[in-house]
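thought: fold this chain, then report.
action: predict
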Amino acid sequence: MIVRHTTRRGYTLLEVLLASAISIMLLGALYVAFDLTLRQTDAGREAVAKGDLSRAIVNRMTIDFTGCIGPMQVKSGGGVPATTTAAATPTTPSATVAADAIAVADTSALTLPEGTAAADVPFQGGLVGNDKQITLFVSRVPTALVNPELAMAVAASAKTLPPDLRRVTYYLGSSGGLCRQEKPYVTADGVRNSTDPDRSQEADDLISDEVLDMTVEYFDGSAWQTEWTGSDLTDDEQSVKGPPRAIRMTLVIQVLGATQSKTIQHVFPVRAAVGLYTPPAPEEDPATTTTGGTE
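observation:
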């Protein structure tokens, strides 16, 4: 009896098509899983980047708002008009000069040394700005006082310490991006008579090119305003209103590689602001008033 063995030389077309279809389905499922994982990873990385950037900007602004200068007392000698004429130095004893200075109610009576002039922009306003730009007048400890080596170098060179007053301006760049400019107040050129930044230094002032837009609002105690001068007078027509109670900053940011922008909003309290309540002037106590002579 002769037995014949048939040899199979390959797969049928149906088997090949079926195997290909199954392979495509498995590869497709694998691609979808990888794509979903990568998208979630990118979204998480983007969220972390936006959060880090937002916190960095808020922290930087918080430091500046904390040092914002508040309004000075009416009798403190602040706000001397720029048109005040110079006068000779008084020869009155220092104790009498101090007493007279306290008694001065009209700041226009104060004079400046020969050859000097007061700033055109009163720094006791503390803050000036609109919806796209904000300028702060801040006070901070001079670097030489917290750096012993620098202090010794300043003392050895017989130079004076740098001023502790600074003018800090946040503004939106011409092509986008958040800019921060800091200059010594009064001593810097172009600072004593303006609250606008020097935009020729915009490239050096850029601190975050991820900021697409900026909106600033000012809380006066009852409503949000779109601009603030800081030099307006209060109801007594003598005290400077000073900085607002709070600043609401709205930023639109988009980190590198992100597909969507994010809007963040933060409210900064201004600790140097004057409250809504204005205490009345103290009345003179008749019991402590001497009518003449010394007992």
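thought: worth noting. The longest strand covers residues 211-219.
final: tokens above.
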